[in-house]
């Protein structure tokens, strides 16, 4: 419990830092945060996947991400995973942990146009990208805030995705 | 013990250590990449059962005086160990698997270093230490075992092969 709180504080101050540094530019701040997440996800996936069996294919990997990794990262399972079986996955988390903090402090509903809120999911965005890339599936991840949760859309690129 | 240790990401050699500066190790490593890929593809086929999806892939192929073993993590990092024929007689599969697991753990610790840039050469002291322990580990002992064909090793060694 303590480490979660510490992580939340760290995450908040990193977001705060990049937000102040790039006052006018949400894009740049998001890119920085996403890069940090990518690097973390890259190393973390190596460590966390060590004790599990090998994953058969793309879907198997994404399932593993939703079931086991998500609990590790955000302390809960995802609410919904959808796929078109052509490399696009949509993960919906109805109570996204890193957003709950901002929600309670700001005491108002999450607004997808609020620039600070988009910054709060940039790190997780990169995290997912890093994990999947290291697992052998380079992808593009976009995230949007829906009501109180987040919807991540993952597009796996099958051309570069081999090995 | 092992006379060559190699770590590869895809086809890029990010770490190589060999007992002698010999070119043939490089040939052997490159020749084994295809076999590793082949084995992984077979294991990840939908028909294979879950138990068969171990990271340790066993003996890849024996050449004149060497035996080559492979291990591929779920992130497709390839580890290759080459043993001389004479020393590998006393080694059993579980022992080699253990060696690979130590190497894998050392690799994980190494890339978790925030100053390490992914996909570049591994230059970590601790990783070197682990590799050294895999390579030079009790050479007189292994030769003694090879001669006596006993499978037990005194408790001073880092890896204790289980008597099977």
UniProtKB/TrEMBL annotation, chain A:
Its main location: Golgi. It is found in: Golgi apparatus, cis-Golgi network. Coiled coil: none annotated. Pfam families: TRAPP. One of its GO terms (cellular component) is TRAPP complex. GO terms for biological process: endoplasmic reticulum to Golgi vesicle-mediated transport. InterPro entries: NO_sig/Golgi_transp_ligand-bd (IPR024096), TRAPP_component (IPR007194), TRAPPC6/Trs33 (IPR037992). Belongs to the TRAPP small subunits family. BET3 subfamily. This is Trafficking protein particle complex subunit 6B.
From TrEMBL, chain B:
InterPro entries: Longin-like_dom_sf, Sedlin, TRAPPC2L. GO terms for biological process: endoplasmic reticulum to Golgi vesicle-mediated transport. It is found in: Cytoplasm, Perinuclear region. It comes from the Eukaryota. Keywords: ER-Golgi transport, Transport. One of its GO terms (cellular component) is perinuclear region of cytoplasm. Belongs to the TRAPP small subunits family. Sedlin subfamily. PANTHER family: TRAFFICKING PROTEIN PARTICLE COMPLEX SUBUNIT 2. This is Trafficking protein particle complex subunit 2-like protein. It comes from Rotaria magnacalcarata. The lineage of its organism: Eukaryota, Metazoa, Spiralia, Gnathifera, Rotifera.
